[in-house]
Amino acid sequence: LFLVWQQMATAQGQEQRSGGVERPFVLTRGFFAGSQRYGAVWTGDNAAEWDHLKISIPMCLSLSLVGISFCGADIGGFFKNPEPELLVRWYQAGAYQPFFRAHAHVDTIRREPWLFGEENKALIREAIRQRYALLPFWYTIMYHSYRSGQPAMRPLWVEYPEDAITYSMDDQYLLGDALLVHPVTAQGARGVQVYLPGKGEVRIELGATGHDGTEDEWGPSGLDPWLSWRDGTGSTAGDAVGRSQRCSSSDEENLCAFLCCDGTAQGDLFLDDGHTFNFKTKREYLHQQFNFSGNTLTASSADPKGSFETPAWIERVVILGAGKPAAVFLKEDNGAAETRLDFIHQAETSVLTIRKPGVNIGADWSISLR
Predict the structure, then answer these.
(1) What's the alpha-carbon Rg for the chain, to the nearest Å?
(2) What are the structural domain ranges in the chain?
(3) Which of 70, 177, 283, 355 has a CA positioned 20 to 30 A from the CA of residue 160?
(4) In which region does residue 340 sit, left (phi positive, over 0), alpha (psi from -120 to 50) or beta (all else)?
(5) Residues 20 and 48 sit within 8 Å (Cβ to Cβ)
């Protein structure tokens, strides 16, 4: 109990210092039930060993299941010195855990990514870039965790309780209900053995067909992590990644829909100032719902009680699993006439990209494929 009281007192002290305006950030490795109310946790002093990379996944899954979703492990290991391959794989794994931080003992060698050669630097940069690009998605699933207690990082059996094969799996997981992640945690590996639960519900990569989940699939990843979006889901991602979250917050966004076999998909986006309690005290937030059905993508408010102005706008809409339309039209709910939009369709991958709809991320609108 002392651990949660210590964290609680620190968080409350920071909040009082700002007059109750600013959200505190408190990070601890000592915690108890209820600590999730006061800040983030990490898994403690690990070591630069492949086994420690591997066990970081079930450790965070276990913490998530008991309500502590904001968790992560020291990237690269706190003690000892990671070899280049281990450091790269750890960045790639850590980028898809809720708390993302490189941290090491003062007596270890320097670990700046540019000290490990051009190829490794590029791989680490890409992992970090993907992390920042997905911050709108991360913020939304953490919002749902805050509201409902659902784990942001969850075992497969949470979404597939009828599939007994998933009960013992702790090396692959879902972020929210949408993104399937299987980090590479074995030295020298260039792929992973992935289980795809649910018939036709998981898409391996852009444009790939669904799988029936009756057996493992070999997921070649090369030097990248293995990722897959579930069919029927949608997500938002930053298009131009800035040097920090704040630099990216007013940039354009990409909206992606991954169609089910019945041609439907849905997702949402939660957005606020990311800094104050105004989302709670003044209802200054934006919660948008996106639905694709009947060849029409619609955006509407999921919570009309909230209101938040943002300069962020939609740079492109990407729909996976769509056929080639004759034309694409945008209809805004402000009374303006329909606008015809440019698009590109890749027949070999069934990917439809609609460029520059030019609508604010918080507006209500519909895009029709005709």
Answers:
(1) 21
(2) 2-8+26-134, 153-229, 239-369
(3) 70
(4) beta
(5) no
Which CATH code, of 3.40.630.30, 3.40.640.10, 1.10.10.10, 3.20.20.80, is assigned to 2-8+26-134? Answer: 3.20.20.80
Domain made up of 153-229: CATH architecture: Sandwich (2.60)
Angstrom distances, CA of residue 33 to CA of 37, 43, 70, 113, 148: 9, 15, 13, 36, 16
Other CB atoms within a 10 A radius of the CB of residue 293 amount to: 14
Q: Give CA–CA dist 128/17, Å, rounded.
A: 32
Integer Cα distance of 132 and 95 in angstroms: 9
Please state the CATH superfamily assignment of the domain spanning residues 239-369 in this structure.
Golgi alpha-mannosidase II (2.60.40.1180)
pLDDT in tens, the chain (370 residues): 899 999 999 999 999 999 999 999 999 999 999 999 999 999 999 999 999 999 999 999 999 999 999 999 999 999 999 999 999 999 999 999 999 999 999 999 999 999 999 999 999 999 999 999 999 999 999 999 999 999 999 999 999 999 999 999 999 999 999 999 999 999 999 989 889 887 654 444 433 344 444 456 666 667 777 888 888 899 988 766 666 776 665 567 888 988 887 899 999 999 999 999 999 999 999 999 999 999 999 999 999 999 999 998 999 999 999 999 999 999 999 888 899 999 999 999 899 999 999 899 999 999 999 9
- Here the tokens at position 331 are 């209809």
b/e code 198-212 from CB counts within 10 Å (16+ = b): beebbbbeeeeebbe
**Does the predicted model carry a pTM greater than 0.90?**
yes
Q: What is the DSSP string of 166-225?
A: GGG--S-EEETTTEEEE---STT-SEEEEE--STT-BB-STTPPB---SSEEEEE-TTS-
Same fold, 153-229 and 239-369: yes
Given CA atoms 31, 37, 40, 43 in this order, what sign does their dihedral have?
Answer: positive
